[in-house]
Amino acid sequence: MNYETNKILGGIGAILMFIGILPVANFYGILELIGAVLILAALYGLSGHFHESGIFKNAVIGVLAGVVGAVLAFVILVAVVLANISSFLYQLYPGWDGSWASLSGMTADTSQFTSGNFDYSTLVPLVTGALAVLVILWVFAIVGTFFIRRSLKQVSAKSGVGLFGTAGTLLLAGAFLTIIGFGLLLMWIAALLLAIAFFQLKQAEPIAPPTYPPPPQPPT
Length: 220
Description:
- Helices cover 67% and strands 0% of the residues.
- It is mainly α.
- The protein has one domain.
- Helix 3 runs antiparallel to helix 4.
- The longest helix is centred in the N-terminal third of the chain and has 40 residues, at 53-92.
- The model has no long low-confidence stretch (mean pLDDT 87).
């Protein structure tokens, strides 16, 4: 891919991620996924253009960290939370027959909480599992955005477009602050800045790889 193609792919990918985060444009993560793939493709091209393998390598590590975190969180959700929720629902819906389909027509008996008949120990695995899922997602989000920031800082240094570094820093700060919710706003802004950064890339000739003088010839 040429330099201009990388610029367009990255810009469109960042815009898709920016739009996909909006509640009014919820496509079940499809826009964000397409956007991430386009950005990775652009970073791969820029990595070759600037002869800096770390640009693509760090981006891939960042994405893989996010995927591993999501898979691990899902496994814990299924193994801990979903496996223990039935005992909680049996108390909340005393007449429940165990069928998930029948829950839609039932009304929760909230008097169980005040009558002294509710076994609060059933909440422990649910709360513990939910907290574990949140912590795992948070930690892996920080790890992932750390490497993505490193990739974008390298693009910034090679291209001279400072917004790449700014977007990477906002992504990392947003990951730290997602624990209080404010971080999602920062990450949304970072996606917009990343789109602007890609479109600010100027057409340039490919950078030649470094050359080294030939080794001295042995004396004859």
